[in-house]
Design goal:
Number of strands of chain A: 6
Radius of gyration of chain A: 13 Å
Helix content of chain A: 10-25%
Helix content of chain B: 10-25%
Largest interface: A-B, 21 and 35 residues
Shape of chain B: globular
Distance between the termini of chain A: 46 Å
Number of strands of chain B: 8
Structural class of chain B: alpha/beta
Largest sheet of chain A: 5 strands, mixed
Number of domains of chain A: 1
Largest sheet of chain B: 7 strands, mixed, barrel
Structural class of chain A: alpha+beta
Radius of gyration of chain B: 14 Å
Order of helices and strands of chain B: EHEEEHEHEEE
CATH superfamily of chain A: Beta-grasp domain
Strand content of chain A: 25-35%
Order of helices and strands of chain A: EEHHEEEE
CATH architecture of chain B: 3-Layer(aba) Sandwich
Distance between the termini of chain B: 26 Å
Oligomer: heterodimer
CATH class of chain B: Alpha Beta
CATH class of chain A: Alpha Beta
CATH superfamily of chain B: Cytidine Deaminase, domain 2
Strand order of the largest sheet of chain B: 1-3-2-5-6-7-8
Amino acid sequence: MAIEIHIPTALRQYADQNSTFEVGAGEVHAALNELTTRFPKLRPHLFTEDGKLRNFVNVFLNDENIRHLSGDELKLKDGDSISIVPAVAGGR
Amino acid sequence: MSAVRVDPGVIAHVEAHGRDAHPSECCGFLFGRLGTDGKTVVRAQRVDNSFEADERHHRFLITPEDFLRAEKQARAWRLDLVGFYHSHPDCPAVPSAYDLEHSWPVYSYFITSVHADGPRETRSWVQREDRSAFDEEQLEAVPGLDEET
């Protein structure tokens, strides 16, 4: 099974400049764990010290934000894609 | 100061959006390439400011869903999403503490200063890797960059 994780431009420097990374995991959190095991410098940018997804980072499974998914909805099937999405805001 | 090569049409796009949105802040995406020969910005795209309506005079927000659509657009164009732009209505084109708190390294942040009579200037900023401050990037206008893509 091949699952592609899309890495945003700002975080590619922590992933050997890869824009995508293929994993074989069967569940979203396991896939992210596979990614950060391969690229440990990514981990602090995605997760807090107690392993929770950072507030300024969202993860999408295909077109769904995983904050709105649970249980079996987080299982992966061949061809799924995961996207890491940084929150963007600002102002004067 | 590092430099970013930009198609002049991008600056025109950003300033026109800033003028249209005034007195609210506008925001949008910057597409280009990030390579060993530096950063280029060849194309810009408007996006809705999703902050609460009564705060848009000094805040902007891009939703994760809009970001995801922009990433897909970048891939379709064989470009990278290399940054974002927003306007500072009636204020200088200099990042605020709020900008610093909510930004990311690597990306270019174009800020355009817009007053009621029109845009004043557009400057580009990039956050330091330790997130402690912004450094300015020199905007180097290169006509025809978009046609090269």
